[in-house]
Specification:
Layout lengths: L4 E2 L1 H11 L10 E12 L5 E7 L2 E8 L2 E12 L2 H9 L2 E7 L2 E7 L1 H7 L3 H9 L7 E11 L3 E7 L3 E4 L4 E7 L3 E15 L3 E15 L3 E6 L3 E6 L3 E6 L3 E6 L3 E6 L3 E6 L2 E7 L3 E6 L2 E7 L3 E6 L3 E6 L3 E6 L3 E6 L3 E4 L5 E6 L3 E5 L4 E6 L3 E6 L3 E6 L3 E6 L3 E6 L3 E6 L3 E6 L3 E6 L3 E6 L3 E6 L3 E6 L3 E6 L3 E4 L8 E6 L5 E5 L5 E7 L4 E3 L4 E2 L13 E7 L3 E5 L1
Parallel strand pairs: 3-7, 3-9, 4-8, 4-10, 9-11, 10-12, 11-12, 12-13, 13-14, 13-15, 14-16, 15-17, 16-18, 17-19, 18-20, 19-21, 20-22, 21-23, 22-24, 23-25, 24-26, 25-27, 26-28, 27-29, 28-30, 29-31, 30-32, 31-33, 32-34, 33-35, 34-36, 35-37, 36-38, 37-39, 38-40, 39-41, 40-42, 41-43, 42-44, 43-48, ...
Antiparallel strand pairs: 1-8, 2-5, 5-8, 6-7
Length: 544
């Protein structure tokens, strides 16, 4: 890229120094001069190119020499002034520290560096003078194993096949490195950075420009703002710190840490641990090899295929999780939570969130409020604590404990014991292999296909128990409510001591029944099944 830079002070100063007037000669003319220099360069040395304002191209491949070509172009309507500027310019190669320094010599450089009474006077008097432009292209060839110390402004930089310690500081120009190695420390502003096929560690700081890195064989650190960061094939650890920067990439062999805000984060295939800290970011992470921790707010979090544990801390973030081989821990609020296929345990706390959970290998614990909770296929115990939540749970291998209020609770298929605490919540329990305990009020309690002991304490709750698969040989079935009827259906061959009390209703039974005293409780016989039914309305005990 060529940039024509305004250098008004230089043109006026040179007119005084050379006695040339800024006469209008009928149009400007570009003047060009090419400088070439070559010097010995020790293997492993450093090339210094400082305070340049040029398009710079550097390539490795030479042996023990450094070759530099500088093409200088100036443009001014006074052709003699342009000739003078070209004539006063030069290119030098100087021994410097542990290598060679490339020195551009132009009147512009001399004016910027020199300080004195006359210089200050020129800068004061001739500020805002005639149009004057300068463009510089620099091409450097040096040994591949050389290092670089390079600073530049207002020009593009390209580096190829250089494998030393590389320090590049640029502003307002694109920086591209290809097929390099060693270590890279790069700073840039207001333009893009591209690094491809780098064999070593990379540290990039950019501002207001895109950053793209591909095929880096060492650890990589990227700091950027307001523009996208993208990466592929990082063979080491990766750290990205962005401010309002989108971050997208795939294939990190080590750990991956990302911090940004307000933009998309899309990560695919990380072998090490992944950590994402986002503020109002939309996050999509897939194929994670060693667990992940994700913190976000107000935007969706989607995670698929984690070979390890997963921890999500979301504030008003929708959460979609699938295929986690370890434990899963989720905190969010106000938005949907969907979790499917977790090999380990699940812990969800999501106030005011609709929660859907499927296929959990071990224990599952869910806390929510005011929205629906749907759970299916839990490999061990299930705990649900809902406040005004509709609850649907099915296929629980272990025990289930459910708390909610004001909305229906439906449980089907529990391999262990079931405990339900409901307040004004309609309760339906089907096919429970273990014991059942229900506390509820004002809404019905229906139990179907039970196989263990049953205890129902209902305050103004109708109770209906049917399709009993098996009654325990000993233990108790205890049903207690007020102002509502009770229906109990038992297998025809049931052997039990049955006690019943109704204050105002009738007792209809297909089995012998003992009448209870309202003021006294019945002590169960430890050697047989004891059934007690108590209400103020009708009681029906029938054979199936």
């Amino acid at each position: 890229m060529r940039r024509l830079m305004l250098v008004t002070i230089i043109a006026l100063v040179l007119s005084v120094l050379t006695g040339v007037c800024f006469a209008d000669t009928g149009g400007s003319e570009e003047k060009t001069r090419t400088f070439s220099k070559e010097a010995a360069f020790a293997a492993g040395g450093v090339c210094y190119l400082e305070d340049a304002r040029a398009d710079i191209e550097i390539s490795g491949g030479a042996e023990n020499t450094i070759s530099v070509t500088m093409v200088l172009r100036v443009d001014h309507h006074d052709k003699e002034l342009a000739d003078t500027y070209i004539r006063e310019s030069d290119l030098k190669l100087e021994p410097w520290r542990d290598g060679v320094r490339v020195v551009m010599v132009t009147p512009r450089h001399m004016l910027r560096k020199e300080e004195g009474a006359i210089t200050r006077l020129f800068r004061t008097l001739f500020r805002g003078g005639d149009y004057f432009s300068e463009a510089v292209d620099i091409t450097v060839t040096l040994p591949s194993r050389a290092g670089l110390e390079l600073s530049n402004k207002y020009g593009d930089i390209s580096v190829t096949d250089v494998t030393g310690d590389l320090h590049v500081d640029n502003s307002s120009g694109m920086v591209t490195l290809r097929d390099c190695g060693g270590s890279l420390n790069l700073k840039n502003t207001y333009s893009d950075v591209r690094v491809k096929d780098f064999r070593g560690s990379v540290d990039i700081e950019n501002s207001s420009g895109d950053v793209q890195v591909d095929r880096i064989s060492g650890d990589t650190v990227i700091r950027n703002s307001y523009h996208p960061v993208s990466f592929t094939d990082i063979d080491g650890d990766l750290v990205v710190s962005g401010s309002s920067s989108s971050v997208t990439g795939r294939n990190v062999s080590g750990t991956c840490t990302i911090e940004t805000s307000y933009k998309l984060v899309r990560i695919e295939s990380v072998r090490g641990a992944l950590e994402i800290r986002g503020q109002s970011c939309s996050i999509d992470a897939q194929r994670l090899g060693n667990g992940a921790v994700i913190e976000n707010s107000y935007q969706p979090v989607s995670v698929d295929s984690v070979r390890g544990s997963l921890r999500i801390l979301g504030d008003s973030s929708p959460v979609d999780v699938r295929r986690v081989q370890g434990d899963c821990f989720v905190r969010s609020s106000y938005k949907d939570v969907y979790i499917e296929s977790v090999s380990g345990s699940l812990d969800v706390e999501a106030p005011s969130c609709p929660v859907t959970v499927k296929d959990i290998g071990k224990d599952a614990s869910i806390v929510s409020s005011y929205r629906s909770i749907s759970v299916g296929n839990i490999g061990n115990d299930l705990t649900i604590k809902g406040n005004s939540s509709t609850v649907e749970a099915a296929d629980i291998t272990g025990n289930a404990e459910i708390i909610s209020s004001y909305n229906p609770i439906e449980v089907k298929g529990v391999g262990g014991n079931l405990t339900v605490t409901g307040e004004s919540a309609a309760v339906l329990a089907e096919t429970v292999d273990g014991d059942i305990s229900v506390d509820n009020s004002y809404k019905y309690v229906i139990i179907k296909g039970s196989a263990g002991q049953i205890r129902v304490a209902g305050d103004n709750s109708p109770i209906e128990i049917t399709d009993v698969r098996r009654v325990p040989a000993k233990g108790a079935i205890m049903l207690d409510t007020r102002y509502k009827p009770v229906i109990l259906e038992l297998p025809a061959g049931t052997e039990a001591a049955i006690w019943a009390y109704s204050a105002y209703g009738g007792i209809n039974a297909d089995f012998p029944v003992y009448h209870m005293d309202a003021e006294k409780s019945v002590t169960p016989d430890p050697n047989t099944l004891t059934i007690t039914v108590k209400t103020t309305e009708d009681i029906t005990i029938r054979k199936r």
